[in-house]
Structure formats: C-alpha cells, structure tokens
Amino acid sequence: MRPQLPTLDLVPLYPLLVVTGWAVLVLLADLFVQHKRALGYLALTGVIVAAVVTVALWPGVPTSFQNMAISDGQALFFNLVFLVTGALGLLVAIEYLERKDLQRGEYYALLMFSLAGMIAMAAAEDLLIVFLGLEMMSVALYVLSGSNQRDMSSIEAAMKYFILGSFASAFFLYGIALTYAAAGSTNLAQIGSWLSGRGIPKDPVALTGLSLLLVGFGFKVALVPFHWWTPDVYQGAPTSVTAFMSVGAKAAGFATLTRVLYSAFSPTFTTDWVTVAAVLAAVTMTFGNLAALVQRDVKRLLGYSSIAHAGYVLVGIAAASPVGVRGMLFYILAYAFMTAGAFAVACAVERREQSTTTLADYAGLAQRSPLLAAAMLLFMLSLIGIPPLIGFWSKLFVFRAAVEANLAWLAVLGVLNSALSAYYYAGVVVQMYLREPGRSPAEEVAFRPWRSALAVAVFLAAAATVVLGLWPGAVVNLLMGV
Amino acid sequence: MAIEQALQIFVFVILTLMTLGGGLAVVTSRNLFHAALSLILSLAGVVGYYVLLDAGFLAIVQLLIYIGAISILILFSIMLTRGLMTPRQVQRNEQWWIAALVVFLTFVVLIVALWQMVWPIADDEALRTPNVAISQLGEALVGPYAIPFEIISVLLLVALVGAIVLARETENNQGSHAEAGSSE
Amino acid sequence: MAIPLSWWLTVAAALFAIGLYGVLSRRNAIGVLLGIELMLNAANINLVAFWRFITPQALTGQVFAIFVIGIAAAEAAAGLAIIISAYRRRRTVVVDELDTMRW
Predict the structure, then answer these.
(1) What is the CATH number of the domain that holds B25?
(2) Pair (B155, B82) in one structural domain
(3) DSSP H or E run through A458
C-alpha cells in the first residue's frame, strides 16, 4: 500500500518557509563569504523579503495548513513585530559584533532560526507546533546569549537561560499532556470545542493543565514570580542579543499565550484565567517597576523595565475582549520599538572592553553625542507613556480595555505604576542631560550618524516611536482587520 | 487471563521500582556520575512502561535516543567537566527543604486533580486493539504531522550549529585553553 | 489492560515531582539537567498513557511523545555545549564547579 500524500496548501506557511530557508542560505553562505558583515546584510535582506511576503498575505489566509498552522491577521501582525525586531536586532548586531570582535556568520543564521521559531509559535494551531516553535526559538537564543565566549557573564547568562528555559519547557509539556488528557486532542480549536461542549463545567485536569501551561508561559515571558532569571540573562548576554530577545521572545510568548487562552480555554475557563492574568499583571508591573528603581546598571534596569511592561501587556489579555487583544497587539508593537531602540542605544554607549553599561556611562551623553541622547530621551519618554509618543497610546489602549472589562482597579494600578516608572526612566535622562561627562574624551562613543548600521537602527526605532505616536490611527486601522 | 493480569501487575511494580527508585537516586545521589547512571536505570524503566502500554516503537526510540544518546552525552559531559568522579561534598543547595515543600504541594495538587477526574476512557473494543502499526506512524509523520516533522529537523540543525558554535575554540581565545581543547 | 489509567498517572506525577525536586535542590547545572530529563519523561508517560486509554485509535499521544524525545535531544545537545563551554572558561579563572546558579 502506498501512503497517500496529502495535497499541500503551503500559503499559510510562506513567512515561516522564507525565514527558515533564508537562515539555511546564510549558513551556507558563511562557508564562502569572508566578510561576515555581509552575512548580516544578507540576513537583513531575508527579513525584508519575509516582511514583504507577510504584508502580501494581509489580511490573512483563510485556509490553515492541515490544522497545524495558520496565517490569520493576528499571526501576520505578530510576524511583522518579530520581523521588525529581527531587522533592528540585525542592524544592531552588524555594528556591535564588529566592535566586539565577535563577527560570525552563525550569529546571523541563529538569529534567523530563532525568528522562524517565533513565527511558528504565532502561527501555531496545535500545541505540538507551539512547543516546537518555542524550542526552536529558545535553543537559538540560548546559544546566542552565550555567543561572546570571551566574556564569562555571557556564558553564565546562556547557562541560566538554558536551565530556566528547559525547566519552563518541562512544565509546559506536562501542561500539554494534561490538556491533551482532558480534551483528547492537541489542536487548540478542538480543545476549545471539547472543553465547552462537555457537561462538566470545571474539569479539574484541564484546570491543572492550564495552570502548568501558565507557569511555563510565566517563565518564558518573565512574569513575577517566574521572572528572576531575566535581569541576569539580559545583563549578561551580548547587548545586541538582549535587544533582540527582550522583545522577540516576549512577543512570541504572548502570541501563543493569547491563542491558547482565547481559543482553547475559552469560554469555559475564561473567568479562571482572567483572575489569574489580572493578579499576575498587577504583581508583575508593580514588582518590575519597584525593582528597576534601585538599578545602577542600564541593561539590568531595562530588564526590570521589560518585566514591568510584560505586566502591562497582560492587562490587555486580562480584559478578555477583542478590544483588549487589539490593545495588547498595539502594546507589543510599541514595546518592540521602544525597548529594542533603548537597547540599541545601550549598544552604542557600551565600550569595547565592557559587557554592559552603568548609569555613570551615560553622564553627559547629550554633549558627547546629542543625537544618540535625543533618541534615548524619546525612548525613555515613550516607555513612561508621555503623549504623543507611541508608548502613550499603547498604555491608553490596554488600560481602556481593562476599564471596559470591569477591571478598573487594574487600570488605576497601571497608571500609578507608570508614574512610578517615570522616576527611573528620568534617572537615565538626568544622567544624559544634566551630568558632566566623567570619562576621558578618548573613550567617547564613536557614533557616526547615518554611517553605521547601529545608527540606522536607532533612527528607525526613534522615528517609529514618534511617527506612530503622532498617527496611531494607521496601526489601529490595521488592527481593526485582525 | 488472571495469570496474565497478575503478571502485568508484577512487571508494572518492578518497572515502577526501577523508574521511581532510579529517579530518587538521580536527585539525591552525592556523586553526579552515579546520578547519571541512575538516570539510565530510570529511563530503562520507562522503556518497559512503553512496552506495557503497547507503544513498541516508542520504546525503541526511548532506548536508542534517550538512553543511547542523551544519557551518554550527559555522562560524557560529567566526565569532561569534573575530571574526577570522586564523591563531592554537598550537592544540594541551602533551600532544599523549601524545594521539598514545593514539590510535595505540586504532587498533592496533581494527584488530587488526576484522581478526581472521570476519564473519558475509550470503549473496550478500542482498548483491546490500539493503533500501533509502525507504518501508520510513518504515514502520520509525512501526512498530518509533516510540518512538525520539518520543524523538528530544523530544530535539530539549530542545536547542532549551536553546539558547534559554543564548543569551537575562537581564534581570539589567546591559547589559554589549548589543553582544554584537546579534551574535546 | 490490567493496570488502570490512574496508576500510570500517579507514577508519572511522582516522577515529575522527583524531577522537580532535583531541579530545585541541585547546585550543579548538570544535576539540574538530570532533573529536567525526569520531568520530561514524566510528561511523556502521561502522553502515552492517555493515548493508550483515551484515544487509542488516534496517534496524537504517541507522535507527540516521539517529538518530545527529539526535542529533548536537541535541548540536551545545546545545553551541554553551554555547560562545557562555561566550565572550560571558568576553570582557568576559578577552580570550582558550576555553582554560579543561585536561585
């Protein structure tokens, strides 16, 4: 008997295929290309091609690939976020690796593989694809975190990330097993219809499975109390990697979290996960901001800030409404530009022999490099949520969704938290604009606008922060179609 | 029939002793090398479980990959990273009793949930004839599971590339690890 | 089947708990990894048991378990490379174990 091969409808997989194929291409080109910098640009081309493909598929492909992967509006929007992050991460890396003498072809290939994992996660319709995408993203990120072999903190970061990441995967897998037990399937839509179709309102095993899945997600997107690895890993990893993973890994985690909660565990378990998400959001943003207050190291500070922002994103999820999802999507896009931009500035300020930057390194940055300081100022203001920057709208959308969902206390707490966060973001600004440069001039930042890839990354992120802040309608219109 | 059932239960008990006993030795043994050897014992118990559960192919996969590859890899790593296999002083950290508490609570929650559940067990006919043909598994891997199959091959490539990137000595490593490199 | 589903689930839960204890209590990175392997195996026992008792006609559980073993191999390869790399780097600086993991 010859196996009957199915007819393949590959259209929903195009973004994934482009990125994966291109990553292999970069890996092969590495054998022949002497100037590894060129591989960075090759990878960047691939990311742009994938972005074009993603836009061409907008507003979504109706068919799914064998009930495994789908490219609906939400997946495509997340693809754009990943690809923007990937492009910024590549631009940053091209320059940063050169300065650190770490230029390697595999770096770019692994970054693209990690992107492919994220895209798979966002497109997943089955827990198997979720798990595989998660692992592909994570394994590539573990290695990237440890890619600076001369720096012990980089290797330590890789080890911590690996241990915590695989620990989280084990929880996640156990959660999948229990969910499969309760629903007899690993397909998200089938789980959803089975769980809501049964007479038993609260299946204890599905509930346990959901909790274990949430623990796994909590580790991956760094929610308090599963966050404690984050500052160490973000600080220890090469700054170009931090810029990429602080956004990409989190966005991918939220992409699947949304899908799992909304299609598999709704509506039967909605009240349960809304409560959990709301409490986690409150704890996460409060703790992240409080811990960031006392940081002297800027990468660490941004690490805690990213924990706080995961809390704000979760507010959008807790709203459990289309408005909340759209707010969350907008927030993640905003977060991508602000955070990747801020880490890109940190790359520029970091000196060759350092592996991180303290607040003191930013003293007098406005005098040394006015444009860089201006960009950082924009990112900080946007992260606080000052209008008319993009960060303001993102917070407005998620908080409004929370109010509409009768979670006004969460919105109030979020606003209070934003005020609290102003304190430490302003600390960076004060250093840049009000302190005298403490360094000898020879060690100043070599930052030549328009001539370096890093400058392009900072400029793009800053431009998006302002332009999308002034005209948020463009993104909102896009999101209405999701 | 009764004899067969009794035999199955007997085998199950032996396998459970192997799996859980091995597991306990993995997490409590002071000597990490012994811990890794106990892991093999525990994994072998799991192989037996798969046979009892009529998942023969999976038992072979477990034997070849988990015991044959992963455990051996771990054993190599232990030998590479400690040089000596002498028993070490303290293997557990200071918070081990908090860990024990967390673990106990997790276990209780799991057991309560699992035992409360009314399982939608398949009917007798289906239970007697599980779907085990290897050819069906193979067809599934190129049919409905084609895309996961492709993704896992890329994942293995990523792990391979990543391991080489990390294990390879960089040219800039000032030769201080020359002798470490020879032990690879 | 002489052995009811709940037995399998209990054994799997116990193995998961043992692995969890290993992860939380070990100081050595490889020791932690051993615990993680136990947890993955516990999940796999669950998957296979559920396949056997709940959906014996569909392949989901078995196929999933095969994928998990493959993923575990990939994870172990990358993870052990990281651990060895850390050891190699550290041995020249501090003659101690990989005790940098402070929880």
Answers:
(1) 1.20.120.1200
(2) no
(3) helix A453-470
Q: Could you give the number of structural domains in chain A?
A: 1
Euclidean distance between the first and the last CA atom of chain B, given in angstroms as a whole number: 55
Neighbouring subunits of C (3+ Cβ pairs under 8 A): A, B
Q: Which of B16, B62, B119 sits opposite C69 (nearest CB)?
A: B62
The answer to whether residue B152 neighbours chain A at the CB level (below 8 Å) is yes
Put simply, whether C33 touches A (Cβ < 8 Å) is yes
Q: Do C85 and A177 touch (CB under 8 A)?
A: no
Query: Of B94, B122, B143, which closes a domain?
Result: B94
pLDDT at B175: 40
pLDDT at A478: 85
A471: containing domain: 269-482
A226 interfacial to chain C (CB closer than 8 Å): no
CA distances from C77 to A142, A201, C71, C97 (A): 12, 43, 10, 20
**Per-residue pLDDT reduced to its tens digit, A152-163:** 888 888 988 999
Question: How close, in Å, is residue C98 to chain A by CA atoms?
Answer: 9
Q: Is A303 part of a structural domain of the chain?
A: yes
> Tens digit of pLDDT for each residue in B41-66?
999 999 999 999 988 899 999 999 99
Residue B145 maps to a domain: yes
- Predicted pLDDT of residue A334: 96
Q: Is B140 on the interface with C (CB under 8 A)?
A: yes
Give me the residues of A, 143-182, that contact C with CB < 8 A: 143, 146, 149, 152, 155-156, 158-160, 162-163, 166-167, 169-171, 173-174, 176-178, 180-181
User: Which domain covers residue B155, as residue numbers?
Assistant: 134-184
Chain C residue with minimum CA distance to B145: C63
- B72 shares its domain with B140: no
Please report which confidence band the pLDDT of residue A3 belongs to, taking 50, 70 and 90 as the band edges: low
Residues of chain B where predicted confidence (pLDDT) is lower than 50: 84-87, 89, 172-184
DSSP one-letter string for C70-94: HHHHHHHHHHHHHHHHHHHHHHTT-
What ipTM describes this predicted complex? Answer: 0.91
Respond yes or no on whether the N-terminal peptide bond of residue A267 is cis (omega within 30° of 0). yes
Number of compact structural domains in chain B: 2
**Under 8 Å between Cβ of A178 and A209:** yes
Express each pLDDT in A391-422 by its tens digit: 999 999 999 999 999 999 999 999 999 999 99
Chain C residues with CB under 8 Å of B141 CB are 63
CA pair distance C29, C33, nearest whole angstrom: 6
Q: What is the dihedral of CA A256, A257, A262, A266, to 10 degrees?
A: 130
For residue C41, the distance in angstroms to the closest alpha carbon of chain B comes to 8
B99 touches chain C (CB under 8 A): yes
Task: Show residues of chain A in contact with C98, CB under 8 Å.
Answer: 159
The backbone torsions φ and ψ at residue A104, rounded to the nearest 5 degrees and listed phi first, read: -150, 145
Q: Is there a single domain that holds both residue B8 and residue B87? A: yes
- In one-letter notation, the amino acid at residue B106 is T
